[in-house]
Amino acid sequence: MKKEKPKYRQIIDAAIVVIAENGYHQSQVSKIAKQAGVADGTIYLYFKNKEDILISVFDEKMEMFADRLHEIIEEPISASEKLYKMVENHFTVLSADRHLATVTQLELRQSNLALRLRINAVLKNYLVLLDTILKEGIANGEFDKNMDIRLARQMVFGTIDETTTTWVMNEYKYNLVALSSKVHQLLVNAIKAE
Q1: Where does residue 182 rank: exposed (0-12), middle (13-18), buried (19+ CB within 10 A)?
Q2: Rounded to two decimals, what is the model's pTM?
Q3: In this predicted structure, what is the pLDDT of residue 63?
Q4: What is the pLDDT of residue 2?
Q5: Going by C-beta distance under 8 Å and a sequence separation of 6 or more, which residues neighbour residue 157?
Q6: How many CB atoms neighbour CB 84 within 10 A?
Q7: Above 80 in pLDDT, residue 149?
Q8: What region does 141 belong to: left with phi over 0, alpha with psi -120 to 50, or beta?
């Protein structure tokens, strides 16, 4: 219910900017409220605390990635093409929102164990969708039938994630989306059927 209210969205968007510019630990709720154009107390109508805001940011944005991945999976294209579109979408979304890229690639990594566990739970849905593509590729003979799905998932997501993190650490100096085909080719070469 809260998620559909405009102020919820304002606070989420403001939190991304504030956390990206100041770092999670330096991002007071008052700064987020100011950026969102709401009173400090308004934030607590939607979120329990700053940690809850960070989890909600990640949850909202991963939902966007997962929704697009659902659409890609439904397309009548090969598993390899679906994998390419997944990589391209991931890079496109993050290159279009550098604040979000900074938050997901740097700030979420510095959190405590309890927070990381909650973040991993949110990420799980996205990874399950990736498994769907990998299984489809095995079933239709595109990918190695003896492939370890769990290991392949870690390799695929880890490559996408590390490529994005390196781009953020290099201060966005090059075109991340332009790397989609190269990353895709490396991944497919590692998992394709003989």
Answers
A1: exposed
A2: 0.90
A3: 86
A4: 65
A5: 126, 127, 130
A6: 20
A7: yes
A8: left
